Amino acid sequence: MPIVTTTDGVDTFFKDWGPKDAQPIMFHHGWPLSSDDWDGQMLFFLAQGYRVVAHDRRGHGRSAQVDFGHDMDHYAADAAAVAEHLDLRSAVHIGHSTGGGEVARYVAQHGIPQGRVAKAVLVSAVPPIMLKTERYPGGLEIEVFDGFRKALAGNRAEFFRAVASGPFYGFNRDGAEVKQAVIDNWWRQGMMGSAQAHYDGIKAFSETDQTEDLKAITVPTLVLHGDDDQVVPYQNAGVLSADILPDATLKLYQGFSHGMLTVNADILNADLLAFVRG
After folding, report:
1. Nearest C-alpha neighbor of 269 from the set 48, 53, 15
2. Which pLDDT does position 208 carry in this prediction?
3. Given this model, what pLDDT does residue 249 score?
4. What is the pTM of this model?
């Protein structure tokens, strides 16, 4: 398997498809998934002539199930290890959910300082912070995330099934077209990873204040969010991120869920391509 070993000894799995002299697009997956969640986008952009790259975050997918480093700093450093190993230049970094937080920290602290990034995209992303704080009083109460931890520790398989079949894709909405294969694939990806990485990752995606990361992202950034996102409410995420980013374009999708990249891929892929080409 293609593996890069980070400076702290973590074997990180990655995919690298397409012409090596083409502009690279690097995809960053959400919690608790893997690079497989980007299959639709990777195939789409590969057909458009781009080099497409995605990795499994530490503790997720096929990467090492280590018991340390499950925080946004290490997530970003791991992404940097992949980008440096492949020597990605003028790259577009696209992150979904927790992967959007990873993109924000990577671009701000690694990608821009190293001159590797052309553009960024935050999709249904967690920045600036999900938790209710004095700075962001519209955030979610800590009890919400404590509930996630309790459910995961109690029965991870059952919890993951409930997330995928309910709020993640909006399958709990009246009249929703429930796609069992999508639910099964979400569950498969989640159960490939480490329970500890997923448990610790809840703190990473909910309590990391990324205001300063957003301020430091000077490259053009596209912010995409569904207005029926039941996992990361758009009012406290996409809208606020677009306000903080120096060069942002915000697009809200009426009625779209947190998992819109999968269930509305035709629309999202076209918009991503227009931004990448623009």
Report:
1. 48
2. 98
3. 98
4. 0.98
pLDDT, block means (10 residues), the chain with 278 residues: 95 98 98 98 98 98 98 98 98 98 98 98 98 97 98 98 98 97 98 98 98 98 98 96 98 98 98 98
Give me the active site residues, please. Answer: 97, 229, 258
Cβ atoms of 227 and 256 closer than 8 Å: yes
Supply the pLDDT for residue 1: 81
pLDDT of residue 200: 98
Place of tokens 């120096």: 246
Nearest residue to 25 via CA among 50, 56, 55: 50
3-state secondary structure 24-77: EEEEECCCCCCHHHHHHHHHHHHHCCCEEEEECCCCCCCCCCCCCCCCHHHHHH
Picking from 206, 212, 224, the residue whose alpha carbon sits closest to that of residue 264 is: 224
- The residue assigned the tokens 């509930």 is 147
Q: What Rg, from alpha-carbon coordinates, does the chain have?
A: 17
Contacts of 166 (CB under 8 A, 6+ apart): 172
Q: Determine the pLDDT at residue 242.
A: 98
The neighbour count for residue 113, using CB atoms within 10 Å, is: 12
Interacting residues of 277 by C-beta distance below 8 A, sequence separation 6+:
none
- Extract the tokens encoding 140: 């979610």
DSSP annotation of 252 reads E
User: Which residue do the tokens 């569904």 mark?
Assistant: 226
Amino acid code (one letter) for 186? W
CA distance 193 to 39: 18
User: Residue 171 has which token pair?
Assistant: 């399958």
Helices (H) and strands (E) in the chain, counts: 10, 8
Q: How far apart are CA 104 and CA 95, in angstroms?
A: 8
Quote the DSSP letter at residue 23.
P
